[in-house]
Protein backbone atom coordinates (compact mmCIF):
# COMPACT_ATOMS: atom_id res chain seq x y z
CA UNK A 1 0.00 0.00 0.00
CA UNK A 2 2.88 2.35 0.80
CA UNK A 3 4.33 1.78 -2.65
CA UNK A 4 0.96 2.50 -4.19
CA UNK A 5 0.73 5.75 -2.24
CA UNK A 6 4.18 6.76 -3.42
CA UNK A 7 3.33 6.02 -7.01
CA UNK A 8 0.20 8.11 -6.71
CA UNK A 9 1.71 11.06 -4.89
CA UNK A 10 5.10 11.14 -6.58
CA UNK A 11 8.22 12.22 -4.66
CA UNK A 12 6.39 14.86 -2.64
CA UNK A 13 4.46 13.52 0.35
CA UNK A 14 1.98 16.38 0.21
CA UNK A 15 1.07 15.50 -3.38
CA UNK A 16 2.32 18.78 -4.87
CA UNK A 17 4.01 17.12 -7.82
CA UNK A 18 0.95 14.95 -8.35
CA UNK A 19 -1.18 18.07 -8.70
CA UNK A 20 1.30 19.55 -11.14
CA UNK A 21 1.26 16.41 -13.24
CA UNK A 22 -2.50 16.22 -13.12
CA UNK A 23 -2.73 19.81 -14.29
CA UNK A 24 -0.50 19.24 -17.32
CA UNK A 25 -3.14 17.64 -19.57
CA UNK A 26 -5.56 20.46 -18.76
CA UNK A 27 -2.90 23.04 -19.67
CA UNK A 28 -2.27 21.26 -22.97
CA UNK A 29 -5.92 21.54 -23.96
CA UNK A 30 -6.89 24.65 -25.87
CA UNK A 31 -10.35 25.87 -26.69
CA UNK A 32 -11.62 25.26 -30.20
CA UNK A 33 -11.11 28.39 -32.28
CA UNK A 34 -11.09 29.06 -36.02
CA UNK A 35 -7.30 29.01 -35.89
CA UNK A 36 -6.96 25.49 -34.44
CA UNK A 37 -10.23 23.89 -35.57
CA UNK A 38 -9.38 20.95 -37.82
CA UNK A 39 -12.75 21.31 -39.59
CA UNK A 40 -11.87 24.83 -40.74
CA UNK A 41 -10.44 24.87 -44.29
CA UNK A 42 -7.10 26.59 -44.81
CA UNK A 43 -7.97 29.67 -46.86
CA UNK A 44 -4.45 31.05 -47.19
CA UNK A 45 -2.83 31.04 -50.62
CA UNK A 46 0.48 29.18 -50.51
CA UNK A 47 1.97 30.47 -53.75
CA UNK A 48 1.30 32.45 -56.91
CA UNK A 49 -0.29 29.40 -58.52
CA UNK A 50 -2.93 29.26 -55.79
CA UNK A 51 -3.66 32.96 -56.29
CA UNK A 52 -4.02 32.40 -60.03
CA UNK A 53 -6.40 29.53 -59.36
CA UNK A 54 -8.55 31.79 -57.20
CA UNK A 55 -8.60 34.39 -59.96
CA UNK A 56 -9.53 31.76 -62.55
CA UNK A 57 -12.37 30.60 -60.31
CA UNK A 58 -13.61 34.19 -60.16
CA UNK A 59 -13.41 34.39 -63.95
CA UNK A 60 -15.81 31.47 -64.31
CA UNK A 61 -18.10 32.93 -61.64
CA UNK A 62 -18.28 36.14 -63.67
CA UNK A 63 -18.92 34.21 -66.88
CA UNK A 64 -21.65 32.22 -65.14
CA UNK A 65 -23.73 35.38 -64.81
CA UNK A 66 -23.73 35.75 -68.61
CA UNK A 67 -23.56 32.23 -70.09
CA UNK A 68 -26.68 30.08 -69.52
CA UNK A 69 -26.00 26.78 -67.75
CA UNK A 70 -22.51 27.59 -66.51
CA UNK A 71 -22.05 27.29 -62.74
CA UNK A 72 -19.16 29.03 -61.01
CA UNK A 73 -19.61 26.89 -57.91
CA UNK A 74 -19.17 23.74 -59.97
CA UNK A 75 -15.81 25.12 -61.10
CA UNK A 76 -14.99 25.80 -57.45
CA UNK A 77 -15.52 22.11 -56.69
CA UNK A 78 -13.27 21.14 -59.60
CA UNK A 79 -10.54 23.46 -58.33
CA UNK A 80 -11.00 22.12 -54.77
CA UNK A 81 -11.88 25.63 -53.61
CA UNK A 82 -15.60 25.21 -52.93
CA UNK A 83 -15.38 24.57 -49.18
CA UNK A 84 -12.92 27.43 -48.84
CA UNK A 85 -15.15 29.78 -50.82
CA UNK A 86 -18.22 28.97 -48.72
CA UNK A 87 -16.24 29.30 -45.49
CA UNK A 88 -14.70 32.65 -46.51
CA UNK A 89 -18.08 34.11 -47.46
CA UNK A 90 -19.82 32.74 -44.38
CA UNK A 91 -17.13 33.94 -41.97
CA UNK A 92 -16.24 37.25 -43.60
CA UNK A 93 -16.90 39.35 -40.50
CA UNK A 94 -15.58 36.75 -38.08
CA UNK A 95 -12.18 36.45 -39.79
CA UNK A 96 -12.23 39.57 -41.92
CA UNK A 97 -8.56 39.89 -42.91
CA UNK A 98 -8.03 36.23 -43.81
CA UNK A 99 -11.30 35.98 -45.73
CA UNK A 100 -10.69 39.20 -47.68
CA UNK A 101 -7.23 37.97 -48.70
CA UNK A 102 -8.77 34.77 -50.03
CA UNK A 103 -11.72 36.47 -51.75
CA UNK A 104 -9.81 39.35 -53.38
CA UNK A 105 -8.43 37.33 -56.35
CA UNK A 106 -11.86 35.72 -56.76
CA UNK A 107 -13.60 39.11 -56.86
CA UNK A 108 -11.07 40.52 -59.35
CA UNK A 109 -11.48 37.44 -61.53
CA UNK A 110 -15.28 37.67 -61.29
CA UNK A 111 -15.21 41.28 -62.48
CA UNK A 112 -12.97 40.30 -65.40
CA UNK A 113 -15.19 37.32 -66.21
CA UNK A 114 -18.33 39.43 -66.20
CA UNK A 115 -16.77 42.01 -68.53
CA UNK A 116 -15.42 39.26 -70.80
CA UNK A 117 -18.80 37.59 -70.84
CA UNK A 118 -20.67 40.81 -71.49
CA UNK A 119 -18.46 42.22 -74.25
CA UNK A 120 -17.03 39.06 -75.86
CA UNK A 121 -19.10 35.98 -75.07
CA UNK A 122 -22.37 37.77 -75.73
CA UNK A 123 -21.07 38.82 -79.17
CA UNK A 124 -19.93 35.28 -79.91
CA UNK A 125 -23.31 33.96 -78.76
CA UNK A 126 -24.91 36.18 -81.38
CA UNK A 127 -22.60 34.89 -84.13
CA UNK A 128 -21.94 31.22 -83.28
CA UNK A 129 -24.17 30.32 -80.32
CA UNK A 130 -23.90 26.54 -80.60
CA UNK A 131 -20.10 26.80 -80.74
CA UNK A 132 -19.99 28.69 -77.45
CA UNK A 133 -22.45 26.29 -75.83
CA UNK A 134 -20.49 23.30 -77.13
CA UNK A 135 -17.26 24.56 -75.58
CA UNK A 136 -18.74 25.27 -72.15
CA UNK A 137 -20.82 22.09 -72.18
CA UNK A 138 -17.74 20.03 -72.97
CA UNK A 139 -15.82 21.64 -70.13
CA UNK A 140 -18.65 21.03 -67.66
CA UNK A 141 -19.18 17.41 -68.74
CA UNK A 142 -15.47 16.62 -68.70
CA UNK A 143 -15.19 18.05 -65.20
CA UNK A 144 -18.33 16.38 -63.83
CA UNK A 145 -16.37 13.39 -62.40
CA UNK A 146 -14.70 15.83 -60.00
CA UNK A 147 -18.11 16.79 -58.64
CA UNK A 148 -19.17 13.14 -58.42
CA UNK A 149 -16.00 12.39 -56.45
CA UNK A 150 -17.52 14.31 -53.54
CA UNK A 151 -19.98 11.45 -52.88
CA UNK A 152 -17.67 8.59 -53.85
CA UNK A 153 -17.97 5.75 -51.34
CA UNK A 154 -20.94 7.36 -49.56
CA UNK A 155 -23.94 5.19 -48.69
CA UNK A 156 -26.96 5.75 -50.93
CA UNK A 157 -30.10 6.09 -48.83
CA UNK A 158 -33.65 6.91 -49.89
CA UNK A 159 -33.44 10.57 -48.70
CA UNK A 160 -30.11 11.02 -50.48
CA UNK A 161 -31.47 9.48 -53.68
CA UNK A 162 -34.49 11.78 -53.53
CA UNK A 163 -32.24 14.80 -53.06
CA UNK A 164 -30.19 13.70 -56.08
CA UNK A 165 -33.32 13.44 -58.25
CA UNK A 166 -34.59 16.78 -56.93
CA UNK A 167 -31.25 18.33 -57.80
CA UNK A 168 -31.58 17.19 -61.41
CA UNK A 169 -35.18 18.38 -61.61
CA UNK A 170 -34.64 21.95 -60.35
CA UNK A 171 -32.43 23.34 -63.16
CA UNK A 172 -34.38 21.38 -65.78
CA UNK A 173 -37.66 22.84 -64.50
CA UNK A 174 -36.18 26.35 -64.53
CA UNK A 175 -34.94 25.83 -68.10
CA UNK A 176 -38.35 24.61 -69.25
CA UNK A 177 -40.04 27.51 -67.49
CA UNK A 178 -37.77 30.14 -69.03
CA UNK A 179 -38.14 28.58 -72.48
CA UNK A 180 -41.90 28.04 -72.62
CA UNK A 181 -43.38 29.84 -69.64
CA UNK A 182 -42.14 33.43 -69.90
CA UNK A 183 -43.83 36.22 -71.83
CA UNK A 184 -40.67 37.95 -73.00
CA UNK A 185 -38.52 40.68 -71.57
CA UNK A 186 -40.00 42.90 -68.86
CA UNK A 187 -39.32 46.64 -69.17
CA UNK A 188 -37.18 48.60 -66.73
CA UNK A 189 -39.12 51.82 -67.30
CA UNK A 190 -42.09 53.07 -65.28
CA UNK A 191 -41.24 50.99 -62.23
CA UNK A 192 -43.15 51.24 -58.95
CA UNK A 193 -41.72 51.04 -55.42
CA UNK A 194 -42.48 47.35 -55.06
CA UNK A 195 -40.43 46.60 -58.19
CA UNK A 196 -37.26 47.67 -56.38
CA UNK A 197 -38.06 45.27 -53.54
CA UNK A 198 -38.41 42.57 -56.18
CA UNK A 199 -34.99 43.47 -57.60
CA UNK A 200 -33.44 43.05 -54.15
CA UNK A 201 -35.01 39.59 -53.98
CA UNK A 202 -33.78 38.79 -57.50
CA UNK A 203 -30.27 39.81 -56.47
CA UNK A 204 -30.55 37.51 -53.46
CA UNK A 205 -31.63 34.57 -55.63
CA UNK A 206 -28.83 35.26 -58.12
CA UNK A 207 -26.38 35.14 -55.21
CA UNK A 208 -27.68 31.69 -54.30
CA UNK A 209 -26.85 30.52 -57.83
CA UNK A 210 -23.24 31.55 -57.23
CA UNK A 211 -22.79 29.39 -54.13
CA UNK A 212 -25.00 26.42 -55.06
CA UNK A 213 -23.47 24.36 -57.89
CA UNK A 214 -25.71 23.60 -60.83
CA UNK A 215 -27.84 26.74 -60.69
CA UNK A 216 -27.50 29.35 -63.42
CA UNK A 217 -27.79 33.07 -62.72
CA UNK A 218 -28.74 33.64 -66.35
CA UNK A 219 -31.58 31.13 -66.12
CA UNK A 220 -32.91 32.81 -62.98
CA UNK A 221 -32.87 36.25 -64.62
CA UNK A 222 -34.61 34.77 -67.66
CA UNK A 223 -37.21 33.18 -65.41
CA UNK A 224 -38.02 36.59 -63.94
CA UNK A 225 -38.03 38.08 -67.44
CA UNK A 226 -35.29 40.64 -66.82
CA UNK A 227 -32.16 39.12 -68.40
CA UNK A 228 -32.44 40.79 -71.82
CA UNK A 229 -33.69 44.05 -70.32
CA UNK A 230 -30.74 44.30 -67.94
CA UNK A 231 -28.18 43.33 -70.58
CA UNK A 232 -29.58 45.87 -73.04
CA UNK A 233 -29.68 48.60 -70.38
CA UNK A 234 -25.90 48.66 -69.88
CA UNK A 235 -25.32 51.59 -72.19
CA UNK A 236 -24.52 55.25 -71.56
CA UNK A 237 -27.36 56.53 -73.73
CA UNK A 238 -29.86 54.33 -71.88
CA UNK A 239 -28.62 55.64 -68.52
CA UNK A 240 -29.20 59.22 -69.70
CA UNK A 241 -32.74 58.43 -70.83
CA UNK A 242 -33.64 56.30 -67.80
CA UNK A 243 -31.34 57.20 -64.86
CA UNK A 244 -33.57 55.28 -62.43
CA UNK A 245 -32.12 52.07 -63.86
CA UNK A 246 -29.08 52.79 -61.69
CA UNK A 247 -31.33 52.22 -58.68
CA UNK A 248 -32.25 48.85 -60.20
CA UNK A 249 -28.55 47.96 -60.34
CA UNK A 250 -28.07 49.12 -56.75
CA UNK A 251 -30.99 47.03 -55.48
CA UNK A 252 -29.73 43.93 -57.26
CA UNK A 253 -26.19 44.42 -55.96
CA UNK A 254 -27.56 44.94 -52.45
CA UNK A 255 -29.60 41.75 -52.64
CA UNK A 256 -26.64 39.92 -54.16
CA UNK A 257 -24.32 40.96 -51.32
CA UNK A 258 -26.86 40.03 -48.65
CA UNK A 259 -27.47 36.70 -50.37
CA UNK A 260 -23.79 35.81 -50.59
CA UNK A 261 -23.12 36.58 -46.94
CA UNK A 262 -26.22 34.95 -45.47
CA UNK A 263 -26.78 31.92 -47.69
CA UNK A 264 -23.11 30.94 -47.67
CA UNK A 265 -23.34 30.92 -43.87
CA UNK A 266 -26.35 28.61 -44.12
CA UNK A 267 -24.43 26.29 -46.45
CA UNK A 268 -21.42 26.35 -44.12
CA UNK A 269 -23.64 25.18 -41.26
CA UNK A 270 -25.29 22.52 -43.44
CA UNK A 271 -21.93 21.13 -44.50
CA UNK A 272 -20.83 20.90 -40.88
CA UNK A 273 -23.93 18.86 -40.04
CA UNK A 274 -24.55 16.78 -43.17
CA UNK A 275 -22.00 17.46 -45.88
CA UNK A 276 -22.30 14.12 -47.70
CA UNK A 277 -26.10 14.27 -47.81
CA UNK A 278 -26.05 17.85 -49.10
CA UNK A 279 -23.64 16.89 -51.86
CA UNK A 280 -26.06 14.31 -53.24
CA UNK A 281 -28.34 17.20 -54.15
CA UNK A 282 -25.40 19.29 -55.38
CA UNK A 283 -24.29 16.48 -57.71
CA UNK A 284 -27.86 16.28 -59.01
CA UNK A 285 -27.93 20.05 -59.56
CA UNK A 286 -24.65 19.88 -61.46
CA UNK A 287 -25.94 17.06 -63.66
CA UNK A 288 -29.18 18.91 -64.31
CA UNK A 289 -27.29 22.05 -65.30
CA UNK A 290 -25.43 20.06 -67.97
CA UNK A 291 -28.77 19.27 -69.58
CA UNK A 292 -29.82 22.91 -69.51
CA UNK A 293 -26.72 23.98 -71.44
CA UNK A 294 -28.28 22.34 -74.49
CA UNK A 295 -31.81 23.39 -73.67
CA UNK A 296 -32.56 26.93 -72.54
CA UNK A 297 -34.36 29.88 -74.06
CA UNK A 298 -31.26 31.16 -75.90
CA UNK A 299 -30.25 27.88 -77.51
CA UNK A 300 -33.88 26.93 -78.16
CA UNK A 301 -34.15 30.02 -80.35
CA UNK A 302 -31.16 28.70 -82.33
CA UNK A 303 -32.86 25.34 -82.81
CA UNK A 304 -35.99 27.08 -84.09
CA UNK A 305 -33.95 29.13 -86.57
CA UNK A 306 -32.26 25.96 -87.81
CA UNK A 307 -35.61 24.24 -88.21
CA UNK A 308 -36.99 27.17 -90.19
CA UNK A 309 -34.01 28.14 -92.34
CA UNK A 310 -31.60 25.20 -92.26
CA UNK A 311 -28.76 24.18 -89.99
CA UNK A 312 -25.72 26.44 -89.74
CA UNK A 313 -23.09 23.86 -90.69
CA UNK A 314 -20.14 25.96 -89.50
CA UNK A 315 -21.67 26.68 -86.11
CA UNK A 316 -22.68 23.04 -85.63
CA UNK A 317 -19.28 21.68 -86.72
CA UNK A 318 -17.32 24.07 -84.52
CA UNK A 319 -19.65 23.30 -81.63
CA UNK A 320 -19.05 19.56 -81.92
CA UNK A 321 -15.28 19.97 -82.21
CA UNK A 322 -15.03 22.35 -79.26
CA UNK A 323 -17.36 20.13 -77.24
CA UNK A 324 -14.92 17.23 -77.68
CA UNK A 325 -11.91 19.44 -76.98
CA UNK A 326 -13.52 20.93 -73.88
CA UNK A 327 -14.49 17.50 -72.56
CA UNK A 328 -11.00 16.04 -73.03
CA UNK A 329 -9.15 19.04 -71.60
CA UNK A 330 -11.44 19.29 -68.56
CA UNK A 331 -11.22 15.55 -67.85
CA UNK A 332 -7.43 15.60 -68.12
CA UNK A 333 -7.42 18.44 -65.61
CA UNK A 334 -9.62 16.38 -63.27
CA UNK A 335 -7.22 13.44 -63.56
CA UNK A 336 -4.31 15.76 -62.79
CA UNK A 337 -6.11 17.07 -59.71
CA UNK A 338 -6.85 13.52 -58.55
CA UNK A 339 -3.20 12.53 -58.84
CA UNK A 340 -2.15 15.72 -57.07
CA UNK A 341 -4.64 15.07 -54.28
CA UNK A 342 -3.53 11.47 -53.77
CA UNK A 343 0.08 12.60 -53.78
CA UNK A 344 -0.29 15.20 -51.03
CA UNK A 345 -2.80 13.35 -48.88
CA UNK A 346 -5.95 14.92 -50.23
CA UNK A 347 -6.26 18.11 -48.17
CA UNK A 348 -9.62 19.59 -48.96
Helix content: over 70%
Can you give the mean pLDDT?
A: 81
Structural class: mainly alpha
Number of helices: 15
Radius of gyration: 25 Å
Characterize the structure shown.
With 348 residues, this protein is mostly helical. The chain has one domain. Helices cover 76% and strands 0% of the residues. The protein has 15 helices and no strands. The radius of gyration is 25 Å and the shape is globular. The N and C termini lie far apart (54 Å).
Give me a quick take on this structure.
This protein is mainly alpha-helical.
Keywords, please?
mainly alpha, globular, about 350 residues
Itemize the secondary structure elements and their pairings.
Layout lengths: L1 H8 L6 H13 L19 H17 L7 H7 L3 H9 L5 H32 L1 H20 L9 H23 L12 H19 L5 H8 L2 H7 L2 H6 L3 H49 L3 H13 L3 H32 L4
Amino acid sequence: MDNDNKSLSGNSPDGTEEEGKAAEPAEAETPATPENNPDRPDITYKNAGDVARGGLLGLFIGLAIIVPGVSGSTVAIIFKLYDKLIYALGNLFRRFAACVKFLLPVVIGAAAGFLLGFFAIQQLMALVPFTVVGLFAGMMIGAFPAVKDEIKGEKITVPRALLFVLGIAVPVAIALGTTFGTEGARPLEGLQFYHYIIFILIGYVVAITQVVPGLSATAILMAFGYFSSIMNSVHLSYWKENPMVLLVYFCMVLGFAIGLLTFSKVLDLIFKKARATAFFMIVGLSLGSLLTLFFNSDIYAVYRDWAAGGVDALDLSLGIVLFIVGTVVAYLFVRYERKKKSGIGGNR
